[in-house]
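Exercise 7. Predict the structure of Signal recognition particle subunit SRP72 from Opisthocomus hoazin.
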Amino acid sequence: VLQISKDDVTALQCKVVCLIQNGNFKEALGVINTHTKVLTSDVIAFEKAYCEYRLNRIENALKTIQSASQQTDKLKELYGQVLYRLERYDDCLAAYRDLIRNSQDEYEEERKTNLSAVVAAQSTWEKVMPEDLGLREATYELCYNSACALIGQGKLNEAMKKLQKAEELCRQSLSEDSDVTEEDIEAELAIIHGQMAYIMQLQGCTDDALQLYNQIIKLKPTDVGLLAVIANNIITINKDQNVFDSKKKVKLTNAEGVEHKLSKKQLQAIEFNKALLAMYTNQADQCRKLSASLQSQSPEHLLPVLIQAAQLCREKQHAKAVGLLQDFADQHPANAAEIKLTMAQLKIAQGSVTKACMILRSIEELQHKPGMVSALVTMYSHEEDIDSAIEVFTQAIQWYQQFQARTNYGCSVFQPKSSVHLSLIREAANFKLKHGRKKEAISDLEELWKQNPKDVHTLAQLISAYSLVDPEKAKVLSKHLPSSDTMSLKVDVDALENSHGATYVRKKAGKLAGDSQQKEQGQGDVKKKKKKKKGKLPKNYDPKVTPDPERWLPMRERSYYRGRKKGKKKDQVGKGTQGSTTAGSSELDASRTASSPPTSPRPGSAAAVSATSNVVPPRHQKPAGAPATKKKQQQKKKKGAKGGW
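Solution. The predicted structure, encoded as C-alpha cells:
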C-alpha cells in the first residue's frame, strides 16, 4: 500500500503499530518523525509517546502527551506511568485516582495495582504516611505493594506477614495454569523473596538474609534491577569483610539498563557503596573519583564528603580531612551539625580533646541537649577542666530557663520546670559536690527543693552540703526531715539478715527458743564452765621416767645428737661452706694409700713407669662392672624404653 501511496495515513499507522508489536521502537519512532506532516500529534500521539517511553526518553514522552490536543484514556494511562518513572508521585497518584473514578473496564485491577505501587513509593522514598485507599488485597501484587508501604513505615513484622500472604497467593494463581513450571513460579517469587531477605537484614538476621539473597542469584532472574538491588544488599552485609565476594557482586550493579529500572535513591545508594568498597580495597584514586562524582550530583549530600574524609584519614591526613569537613560546613550551614560531630570525633582520635570540645560547643542547636552536655562534661573532666564543665551545665540550665520564659510569656501562674531542666540542675549539683564546689551546689539544691519540697532525697543532700559549710543552717533544715515513725520502709528484715552479704546472721529459731526456756526457769544467768580436754600422751610414756628437757628442740640441735650411723662418708660430702674440707678428707685421698697405683708423671719429674711393671695406668683402667652396665643398658634399649639419659 505504501508503495502505491507513501503518505497513506492508515498504512503508516498500521506499520508503526506492527513495529511496536515487534519491539522495534526506534524504527517505529523513525517512521513517525519522517512523516510528521501526515502523522500529526492528534493522529499518532499515543504511539509516539509510547515509543519514547520504551526508549527511556521519559521527558520527551511527557512533552508529547502534554502537547496532544485530546487526552484519551490510553494517553492518561501512559501519563500515569511516565509520572511514576519521573518520581512525581503526588501527580501520579492524582492521575490514577482520576482514571479509576472515570473508567470501568477489565483493566480496573491493574490500575489499582499501579495506585498501590505509587503509595508504596511515597512511603519508602518520601517517608509520607500512606492513606488507606480501601483496596482489597485479592492479588499477590496488591499484597506485595502493601508490604512495601509497611516497610517504609518501619512496620517490619506486619510487612513480613503481608509478603508471606503474597507468596501464597502467587503460588495459587500460577499453579492453576498448567503451562507454568515450578521454575517459572520461583522466578516470579524472586522479588517477593528478595523483599523478605531485606526485612531479615533490617532485623539483624544477616545470615538468613544472605542465604536467601544467594538463592535468588542462583536462579539467574532476568530482572537486572532485582539483581542489582540484591548484589548491593550483599555488599552492605559484607562491609569490609569478604571483599573478594563484594567485588564480584558489584559487577551485577553495572549491568546494562539498571539505571532505567531503579529509583534515583536506589542508584545513589549503590554508588555510595561502590565508593566505600573502593576505600576498603585500598583503591584510593577510584574512591576519590566516585565520591567526587557523587558530590557533583548532590552537592548538599553528606555522604560523599564523609567518604572523602574517611579516605584521607586512612592515608593519615587527618588535618586535611578536618579542613575538608570545615569547608563543607561553611558552605552548607544546614548540615553543619553532623559535619562538626565528625570533626570532633577526628580531633578526639588525634588526642586533641580540648579542640574537640570547642567544636562541639560551636553547635548551637545541640548545646542544651542532655547528651551533648554529658559528653562535654565527661571530656572536660578527663582534661581536669572543672570550670569549663560547670560552665557547660550553667549554659544549658540558662537555655531552659529562657525557653520556659518565652513559652510562659504573659502568664502569671507559676509554671513548674521541665523534667529535663530539673535533671540538669540535679546533675550539676552532684558534679559540684563531687569536685568540692559546695557553695555552688547548695544554690542548685535549694532550687530543686523549692520546686519539690516533699523530695526527701534533695533535702538530705542539702543538709549534707550545709553541714560542711553552715552547721546551724543544717540543723534548721533537718527539722523538715520526716520522723522515723512516719516513714514506712517496706523492708523484709529476716530476708535482709539472712542475705548472702549480711555481716550479722541470726541464730536458729530452735536455739533461741531453748535459751528463752532456760531463762524462764532462772538458769539463764548461770554460765557453764567449759571442760578442758586432757592432752594426749605418747604410747611409750613412762610416768616414772623424767621427760627429756630438750624434747622441744630439733634433733640436730640436741646435745646428745651424734649424726646418722649409715652412710657417714656420703653425708660428709658437700657439707660445710664452699671450699672447706672435712676432717676425714685425707682418708679419701687415694694417692696417700700404699696400694694405690701411681699417677701420671708430673712435668719436670725424672720418674717414669718401667716397661716390666704390671700396674695398669689410670687412663687405661676400666671401672668395675662396666661391661655388665653396658649390657643392661642395651637390654633396656631393646625393650623399647622411651626414657632419655
